[in-house]
Amino acid sequence: MTKPNEASALLQNRGVQYAIFWLVSFLFLVNYFTQGYDIGLIDIVYTLLFHISLVFAVSINSFYLLPNYLAHEKYYKYSILLSGLIIISMWLNIFTFQYLSDWIFPGYYFVSYYEWWELLEFLIIYVGLTSMLEFSKSWFREMQVRREMAELEQERVQTELKALRSQINPHFLFNSLNHIYALSVRQSVQTSKAVLQLSELLRYAIDHMDRDRVPLRKELEYVTQFIEWHKARIDHPERIAFTCAETPDKLQIAPLLLVVFVENCFKHGRLSRIDDRIIISVSLTDSTLKLITENSTDPDRELPNESTGLGLENVRRRLNLLYDERHHLDIQNTINRYRVSLTIELE
Length: 347
Known about the structure:
The chain is of the alpha+beta class.
């Protein structure tokens, strides 16, 4: 017994498709040509002879003219060659019944019952019908290729996202351990508290980094804890201003996107002078989230490139993959200020 997949593959074979088409054509025309109620041998022979010109025209058009001329948009040449093909096929039909039939079937006497305009109608119908079948097959093949390409692209994006997410923990952990190491060297009483805070932050990262989306409320709670963790390690936490809007439970966001920009404030920002500030604000308008981070920088430093740092390059790529047309990222890097404005249209 033929399996369903094998049967489907068989039906997609071009030779099988044409064999089915000509079988249906023969059954239709033999009934159309039959004069009486019963189909006789002479009707079968006549139908076979009539198909010679039809098969000739359809084959030349389908296997030569369409792929070599029409498919390459050579419309003028295709029209001329198709017209010539139809004229030759009409002549072949007349030649078949006037000369060829006597040679193939000497015991029968056949004549062509149809005038040239009637033969023209037959040929136009058959050539037009098979051309449409070729176009439909090409369209389905193109749709299948596009579907396969979309699936491959989706797989590529998912693979890349997994690779990007896998970089988040090591990057964050490296920076955090440096801070705890500095506390331990100074034998600070804040060391144990910092370790506990770090464990809570890592717990969230480990539990959520492999998810496609997390509740926005949870993500902002994580950002808040992250800021508090950094405030605990500086001498003037009042120089850090953080405001965050209330968020509904229904909104979702990709995990660990916002914290990279917040982390850069503490990593590259300056808080040594009395007028130095780190300003972080999160606002929400309907489903549009806006994050603004701003920090003081050293005016004597060499200005870095906007995409400096693994974390920022990582989050840029994730934003492009996840929110391609639904986000806007603006980074302003001046002599003494570094400002980030990120807008995301959430789902």
